Amino acid sequence: MKITAKRVVGLLATLTVLGSGITIASPASAVSNLTIWADKGTIDTIQARVQKWDTDNADYTVTLVQKDFGTVRDALKVAVPKGQGPDILAGAAHDWIGNLVAANVLLPIDAQLPNNFKDDFVPGALQAMKYNGHYYGVPGWTENIAILRNVSKAPKPLKSVNDIKDGELGINYSATTSDPYHFYPFQTMFSAPVFTTDANGDWTNTVGMGGPNGAAFAKWLKLKGTKFFGPPANANILCDFLNPMNKAKKTGMIKYWVTGAWNINAIESGAGNCKKGLQIGTGYAIDPFPTGPTGIKPHQFLGIRGYLMVANGPGNTTNVAGATLLMRYMSSQATQFALYDNFNKTPANAAALAQAKDNPVIAGFANAANTVPMPNSPAMDAAWTIWGKAQTRIIQGKEAKPDVAWAAMVKTLQAAINKTN
Amino acid sequence: MARLLKRSWSSETPSMAGILWKLGVLGVVDAVAVTMIMILLAQNRIWVAVLSVAVLLIVNWIYLRKGGLPAKYLTPGVLFLLVFQVYVLLFSGYTAFTNYGSAHNGDESLAVQTIKNAAYRTLDGEDYSVGLVKSDSNGHEALLLTSNLDQKVYIGEDGKLLVQVPSGGYTLSPKCADPYAEDVTTCMHAAEKAVGYSPVSVDSLSPSQKLSYASIRVATDLANPNVGIKTADFASALQVQATLSYSDKTGFFTAIADDDYGNYVTGDVFKPATDGYFHIDGDVNKAKLDGGWRVEVGFANFQKIFTDVQLRDPLMKVITWTFAFAFLTVLSTFVLGLLIAFLFNHEKLRGKKFYRAIMILPYAFPGFLSAYVWVGLFNRENGFINTVILGQTPGNEGNFGWLLEENPARLAVLLVNLWLGFPYMFLITTGALQSIPSELNEAAEIDGASGWQNFRLIKLPLLLISIAPLLISSFAYNFNNFTIIYLLTKGGPNDSGITDYDVGGTDILITFVYKIAFSGTGQNYGLASAFSILIFFVIATISLISFRRTKAFEEII
């Protein structure tokens, strides 16, 4: 290549532009760093308290990173092997734990849980964060369903499920995969728990909803069918619950609604063309579930959103001391009460819950709670689908022999669970 | 004139503006690339950085040298082809031969670390609040422990028993042991100083010193070296018992305590097995430890596709439906598009421009938008189709369940795809029809051919010569038409055949593979990649055969 003036100019110009692309290396930090991943809803909830802790502890810097709730688990599974994960995963649903442990993502925190700390929590809350004998995080806030009652249509709380007439119950479930979470109280009325429990009260890996109890439940589901439970994916439950009964037009028939705290706002403010909303006490009440057809008191699932400790990569670079301190702060009575006060989250800290019970909604759901934590084994994702598919088919009357179909479902579910363990 | 043209197109004398543009664009690309390379180096990804530097130098050489015009045109396209097609293909191909998935998402060292992290259990009983101290006499690191039970104070050094510090020999910290205790008047205080020991602040420690304090094991039973009191967060200490020990030399785990769940007993040795887990004696049939890693499994994924009964039965149904779906879609859209194109070919039809504009609309709307609208239209209780077109009662669950039953859902999917696809066929057949010379029409009429004969024997074969490749590509596209199936039915109403795998009535191969890869108990990227390779071969074969056969059309004329 001949060296010409043009070529030299060209080369110089290119190199100049090249040079402007050189970035400055990031400065090394002297303080201890903590990274938290959380979805948007969780960040909105915990941000103020986390920033307060950050300011109070000058030797720590906390970075809150926003992730999408649906995909944060997959993001973790990819980032952790590369050592690029966070120290804490906040706002995690506790039934994610088994799946995440199997993917080498979580770090046990048993050694950081002295008895006086464990005793701070409501019973069952910390237990939900346990998998295979190890604790992997601390609970943040809890949620459970209850049975809501329109006081003007039904002045007295239910004693037995037999007192509910067809069409009076509203419950959300999908036409394809039902909603075993919402139907669980009915299932426990027949003593058919999803898994058996061991001596410590922890879930085992043996499916417990088979046998004669499960068959009885399946038969009852078919008997009651969509006449009792309503159609699947019913978008009118809210209005039918709020509006007064109109037997001629067959609207407003729903007296009882199986749902959780997430619908309270809609109930209290009314929505769209429903009549205006109801207020707690005078308009609606939050009741515990009635006893079953044979008098058994049912359980419902306790859902916990909490803080999990992430094992950061093969070099194990998680900042354990800092993360534990922050977790203790977020579990303290003051913080948990603040989260309730500002964001209506039911505290997992027992002392904070006692303070929060002044709020009738929180008190209502807490008093209705006869809860068991949702199982957190890695197979739960598929379990919901397998369980729900059979359930919705039976409810919609698509199974001539419900007990046979239910037994087949139990067999499939057990096989799926055995495969992942 | 020719000389002027030669001068402006020749690469001998480019204009100044041209040179500046080229240098500007090249400069920006170089700047971005250099930034990227610096970031890669900072993250220690050496090989990718070296590769990027090599590519950068080649690109610069191509564009700065004289001549070599073809390379200058082809480089961007080839680069993108390599990155987005070739690399993806090779990576999928490699993954198909591994067991990469959510339970095997890293290498063995990650699994070893995970197992080590959980290789202990805490023992019930007394626990302690911790202060870090250093011995004044010999500089040894030690833990100053205050019992949470009875507030007695002890010194614990590595490997030695607890030594109680008598009252008066220690000072309590003014702060609460629980930094977030509600009531500071009644909270417990931990000891922070003891005679003969100086406190050490956690912030002043280097990472290796922190590790050193975290590995102090205060003995509780001198005869048992696997039990002791340890602290992991320098705030609390509990009694822990080690359950597994790892040998760096052999790479095995040995059980030094019995398992709580009865899975193993003291003395069992866990060795890495071929399935990417640690099993007792490396035997895949014996108990394993939680924590797997990615291993190459050879053709196991492919074998599974053909031999796993849980997989094979739904797979057959899905393959049949995929072929049927693609074929019926192409057939129905082609027939409808052709019919309308014929209609429009008639000179006497008025308002052609208006009709044409409306006909193109389904094609113009994004499929994502249309699919969701159609889901609403097909709603059983209140959808437009049931209530208005079929005249059924709104709100009645006895209405036709379009997306809720298997065969109606398939019909619905085909209808939507017909609606979305016929404008495309209409456009291309219009073009093809107009390219048929009108003399052929006149010749056919003279020869006495009827309208249908004219169409079947003259127009159709000529059409197919130009359209056939497009029909084949439409078939290949609809074979993998993930969007419409997933948005409309997410794979369709789940059938009664309950299997481990989440498969529904309208699942085509690609949505089935997507569900295997990304949903369910454990994402199984290895199996999904094996499927993808198979799908690739199926489509490649069909396309190759079809293209060969279309050459046969040219023989007819």
What does this structure look like?
Chain A has 421 residues and is α/β, with parallel strands linked by helices. Helix content of chain A is 39%, strand content 17%. Chain A has two domains: 32-142 and 302-373, D-Maltodextrin-Binding Protein, domain 2; 146-301 and 379-420, Periplasmic binding protein-like II (D-Maltodextrin-Binding Protein, domain 2, 3-Layer(aba) Sandwich). Residues 21-29 of chain A have low confidence and may be disordered. Chain A has helices at residues 5-19, 40-56, 72-79, 97-102, 115-118, 180-188, 211-229, 237-242, 264-269, 320-331, 333-343, 350-356, 360-367, 380-395, 402-420, and strands at residues 32-38, 60-66, 88-93, 130-131, 134-135, 137-143, 146-150, 169-171, 195-197, 203-207, 256-259, 284-287, 300-309, 346-347, 371-373. Chain A is globular. Chain B is α+β, with helices and mostly antiparallel strands and 557 residues long. Chain B has three domains: 17-66; 120-242, no CATH class; 306-556, MetI-like fold, CATH 1.10.3720. In chain B, 52% of the residues lie in helices and 11% in strands. In chain B, strands 1, 2, 3, 4, 5, 8, 9, 10 and 11 form a nine-stranded antiparallel sheet that branches. Chain B has a four-stranded antiparallel sheet with strand order 12-13-14-15, with no helix packed on it. In chain B, a hairpin with a 5-residue loop joins strand 4 (153-157) and strand 5. In chain B, helix 4 crosses helix 17 (525-556), helix 7 crosses helix 17 (525-556) and helix 12 packs across helix 14 (451-479). The longest helix of chain B has 37 residues, at 309-345. The relative contact order of chain B is 0.08. The mean pLDDT of chain B is 85. The chains are: A alpha/beta (421), B alpha+beta (557). At the A-B interface, helix 1, helix 3, helix 4, helix 5 and helix 10 of A face helix 2, helix 5, strand 1 and strand 11 of B.
Write the layout of secondary structure elements.
The complex is a heterodimer of chains A (421) and B (557).
Chain A: H1 5-19, E1 32-38, H2 40-56, E2 60-66, H3 72-79, E3 88-93, H4 97-102, H5 115-118, E4 130-131, E5 134-135, E6 137-143, E7 146-150, E8 169-171, H6 180-188, E9 195-197, E10 203-207, H7 211-229, H8 237-242, E11 256-259, H9 264-269, E12 284-287, E13 300-309, H10 320-331, H11 333-343, E14 346-347, H12 350-356, H13 360-367, E15 371-373, H14 380-395, H15 402-420
Parallel strand pairs in A: 1-2, 1-3, 8-11, 13-15
Antiparallel strand pairs in A: 3-13, 4-5, 6-13, 6-14, 7-11, 7-12, 9-10
Helix pairs in contact in A: 7-15, 11-12, 14-15
Chain B: H1 2-9, H2 16-42, H3 46-64, H4 69-95, H5 108-117, E1 120-122, E2 128-135, E3 141-147, E4 153-157, E5 163-164, E6 170-172, E7 191-194, E8 197-199, H6 207-214, E9 218-219, E10 227-231, E11 236-242, E12 244-246, E13 253-255, E14 269-272, E15 278-280, H7 300-307, H8 309-345, H9 352-364, H10 367-377, H11 384-389, H12 406-434, H13 438-446, H14 451-479, H15 482-489, H16 509-518, H17 525-556
